[in-house]
Amino acid sequence: MKKLGKYIIAVLVAAVFVGTFVYLYRRSRPKEAQYQELEAKIGTITKATVVTGKIQPRDEVNIKPQISGIICNLYKDAGQMVAKDEIIAKVKVIPDMSQLSSAQSRVRLAEVNMKQAQTNFDREKALYDKALVSADEFERVDQALKQAKEELASSKESLEIIRDGVSSSNASGSSTLIRSTISGLILDIPVKVGNSVINSNTFNDGTTIATVANMDDLIFDGNIDETEVGRIGVGLPVRITVGALQDLSFDATLEYIAPKATESNGTNLFEIKASVKVPSGTTIRSGYSANAEIVLQRAEDVVTIPESAIQYEGDSTYVYIPGAEGYERRNVTTGISDGVTIEVREGLAEGDKVRGTQILNKMKP
User: What is the pTM of this model?
Assistant: First the structure.
């Protein structure tokens, strides 16, 4: 019995040893690779580039005052529509004391001259009625009175303009009333009642009372890299996507490419603009971030395969097709690619099978 037990143990040890050897041998043998088979299909390939930028109105105007003063009334708010020449605000003039004093002095002098001219006229009129002075002499006095009246009226109007910013004879064209120069939407009113404002002059740009834009005429404004600017041209179709509107897309047309680059972080960028066609009923706000997809190349009704099936060797491209003894190499001529699918111009026909990516490693029996 003891010998039988020893035999059994020896057989078990031998079985474990042989089993381990067989297992390791099978594991060390070359594995058979299996590949996904892909089919060549007829399709359309579009190669495009994406440019980031913003949606903004083509015409955006800053409304500035013609005189300096203090905002005393605001008649509009941001977000409201305004018509051309419609009043947005009113400015109260703070006159320059030197100019005011000079204007007042001019009025007083004009009044003195007017009284003297009136006295002279009355005296000459009485003598003329008695035929004691000639008609020429009377006409000179009459002319002097008319000039004195005009000078008084002019001096008073100048005083009103300096003191109030508007004259009684031209109240409708008052420079104290800030009017919109275009029809559109008020994007911003950066001032409040009581704020001081200054007019534009040689030394400053003036205070912006309001920003008005025509939101029915929008453009996309972005920048494209110098490596791609040579492949685009004015008139190309553009697809605009606005992320803030749940990826809402619009058609656009490229209408401007900057002739000069601007440098940004060591990269030369060219400004581009595209006119945006916004469907009616869609509200777009100025400054929305957007992406513009510009089609660089397009090939329709061509043989296509996934680009992962293409192999490269120097300047040659080839694929592997199923053959009698596995896969056979075949040279192909490729066209444009969108990064996923590539055009095959020569070497394959619709329905041909090609070797794709490896999907399973199977041990040889």
Answer: 0.60
